[in-house]
Amino acid sequence: MKKLLLALAAGAMALTATAAMAQDKLTLQLKWVTQAQFAGYIVAKAKGFYSDEKLDVTILPGGPNVAPEQVIAGGGADIIVDWMGGAAAARDKGVPLVNIAQPFKRSGLELICPKENNINSVADFKGKTLGVWFFGNEYPFFAWMNKEGLSTAEGGDVKVLQQSFDIQPMIQKQADCISVMTYNEYGQALDAGYGPDNLTIFNYTEMGNDLLEDGLYVMEPSLKDPAKVDAYTRFVKASMKGWQYALDNPDEAAQIVVDSDDTGAAELKHQRYMVGEVSKLVDAKDPALDMAAYERTIKALVDQKIISKAPEGAYTTVITDALK
Description:
The protein is α/β, with parallel strands linked by helices. It is built from 14 helices and ten strands. The protein has helices at residues 2-22, 39-46, 49-52, 68-73, 84-92, 139-148, 168-171, 185-191, 204-207, 226-248, 250-260, 268-278, 291-303, 318-322; strands at residues 24-29, 55-60, 79-82, 97-101, 109-114, 129-132, 159-162, 178-181, 199-203, 215-219. Strand 6 (129-132), helix 6 and strand 7 form a beta-alpha-beta unit. Helix 5 (84-92) packs across helix 13 (291-303). The chain is globular. Residues 1-6 and 12-20 have low confidence and may be disordered.
């Protein structure tokens, strides 16, 4: 009997090992640090949605010194979360990135200005200092300024400050206006006593100046491999399930994000705020790329000369079509 039990145990272990080996490994590079901006992916991993799709997914946090386009180009990731401006600029320079899904349908980008700085409209920007993030996050701002006919060159209509990734440039009065994301730095501004009553807020989406933000990108050559395409399809399916779960269970999702942050920097209250704001931008039921938004984004990038021409093959509907 003892030999039989040992044999059964060995068999079970072998089956477990086989099942583990049957999982396809994928590495996802996030655009920024572990936070609820990426709750769908973090929740999908924690709740086993990737495992259910026979995927072994590693999620790599980003940061100020991490360029997702460079990571995937160097073979460090299979999929990246990126803004279309950054992905298109990288493709224009020879990194063949392809959008396979677009969970974020709306932009969370804003420019906020304390009312004491007497900025009430775009006409008041001249001579002012405007804070902007760089590293690929600057493209929507420059496209907006180009649309308004405002020069951002040295000695031009506005002075551009490369700001830090927080609201300190506004607190310390280094800039008249600063860039914020609705789901992150704007919450910090609220905590600091700012809000609609004492801020002039320029919301990129409301102005029609929004460029597509967090999408999923892969390297074009990998799409020639049917096995990879199948794995990407299962990844997007599980990720959207993760997004739906996160939006339906914001308290639990925020806690999962905090628990997943190895740095310990993620605070539960702020992550809960972030889930609530991100839910206004994500369509968990539709990962497909909106072509009108795509065309608007590409036109803005070409007009601003951020990319030399409208790209060909920069997106595919193969993945999202398979999920319909």
